[in-house]
Every structure is written in C-alpha cells, then in structure tokens.
Q: What sequence folds into this?
DNA sequence: GCCAATAGTATCAATTTGTATACTATTGAC
DNA sequence: GTCAATAGTATACAAATTGATACTATTGGC
C-alpha cells in the first residue's frame, strides 16, 4: 500500500499497462516488432521468420501496428511488388521493452522444450 | 543484418518474445500483474481496480497466471470466503517489464484522452 | 499458354476468447 | 424471509483469431 501507483479508477482504459498491451499485446505484434528491431524487412521475409502465422494474420497485425504509428510501410511500385516494413521513431522507443521481453523469455520460458537435442546447456 | 538475434527458425515457438507474450499478453494479465506489484490483493479488490473486466475473465486470467507460476493463490477457509493473490518469485522477475510497460504507456498512449478536464498537463 | 514469385485479399468453417447474465454456498443484518 | 457480501461457476451468446484454400495483378521463364 505504500507504493501508490495511482491508477485512475474511473477511466475506460484503467491503466497505462493496459494501453501498452493493447498496442503490442496482439498475438504476433511483439514478434513483428522484435524482428524489425533487426532492420527493415519485406512481407515475405517476416512471414518466413514467423512460421506459425498465416498471411492473413500477419497482414492484419502489420496494419494495426501501422495504424498505431509503430511501423512504417513503404510500397515500391515494382513488379513483382515490394513492400518494406520498418520501425518508426515511436516504434523504436519500444526497443527496451521488446528486448526485456526477449531476455525474460530466454531465461524463463521453456520454449526450447521441443527436444533441445544436445546443443542447449 | 548485423545484430543476428538468432531466432531458431524451425521451432513451433519461434521467439522468446512470443513465449513471454504468451504468458503476459493475455488481455488482462499485464494489468493483474501490475496491480499485484503493489502487494497482495483479494479477488474483488482486483475486480474493483479493473473496471473493464468481467468476473469470469478475471478468474480465467488469474488461473492462467497461477498455472504459469507467476502468481500465488491463497484460499482462507472463512465465511465469507477470502482468497488472496500475490506475485511468486517468478512473477516478481517480471517487475521491470511491467514497469517498463507502464512507463511507455504513460508517455505514449493517449489513455487520458477521455476528457482530461484541466488537471493533466 | 502454364507455372512461379510478389504482397496481399476473399471466403468458409472451426476454435478460442470475451461478454452478459444468472446462479451457487454461507453467514449476518434487517 | 430477503438482501448483501464473498469468490467464484454455468449457460448462452458474440466477436476475434486461426487454418485452408483460392484468387488478384504483373512479369519472366519455359
């Protein structure tokens, strides 16, 4: 009771945490952001980096991130078409969060549990 | 291309980010965790702090967090019943992430957009 | 003309997630 | 006997998410 995080009790978006999670909490958004930390990526490039997501879902998450001003979508009028996604300045401010998410996952999520063979200590 | 985040490409859980988001990315999980940073809370106490969530969803998110070992559920055999939720040691390790989420939300999410009246600069 | 690649969109069905409402049990207050 | 409080559960329903597949347009290869 000493800390007093003072969350306004009568707002529809109760917490700043809720607001942030609304933006990056989507099933694939954090992962997209994570891959874009590494630099600009094309649509199919992202798709290949994320084996579990469908084209449709990837498109939708990308559009939502764009609508929230976190990523930039650059369309090149070429054939075959080329679309490049990159982080905006606002998206870049999420870097410490995404990296913290990655670090935590690496030390606490048993995501290597799918047969680590012998290469993981 | 220089950074090489080396995400294993052929695992079902592609990224540590994905794994972390699986645990705290649920619609209300981050918010629950955020309120528990402040100390032990009873069920209805949490419910009052989160106006947008239904009893059922709160119960479910709480059970999932418990199953993931992030929170502890202590039932007191009293009438009326009392159930207290608190962070486990593992849950405590999320503190920097939750706080980062809160800070980011405070500076980037316009969640005060619902009529700031005159009290917000 | 047919197939491939690009970056998607369209459609259908199935599953998951979320909402709304009512209900449980127990005890005390009224 | 009825209402309130506690911490939920049950049921019904709506919305979001997913998977599978087909389709768009354009150009080059064969």
A:
């Amino acid at each position: 009771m000493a800390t007093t995080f003072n969350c306004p009790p009568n707002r529809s978006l109760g917490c700043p945490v809720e607001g942030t999670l609304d933006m990056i909490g989507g099933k694939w958004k954090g992962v997209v952001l994570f891959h874009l930390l590494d630099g600009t990526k094309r649509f199919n490039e992202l798709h290949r980096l994320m084996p579990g997501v469908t084209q449709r879902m990837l498109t939708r998450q990308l559009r939502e991130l764009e609508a929230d001003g976190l990523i930039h979508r650059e369309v090149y009028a070429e054939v075959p078409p080329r679309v490049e996604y990159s982080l905006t300045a606002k998206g870049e401010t999420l870097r410490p969060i995404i990296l913290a998410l990655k670090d935590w996952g690496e030390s606490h999520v048993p995501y290597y549990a799918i047969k680590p063979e012998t290469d993981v200590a």
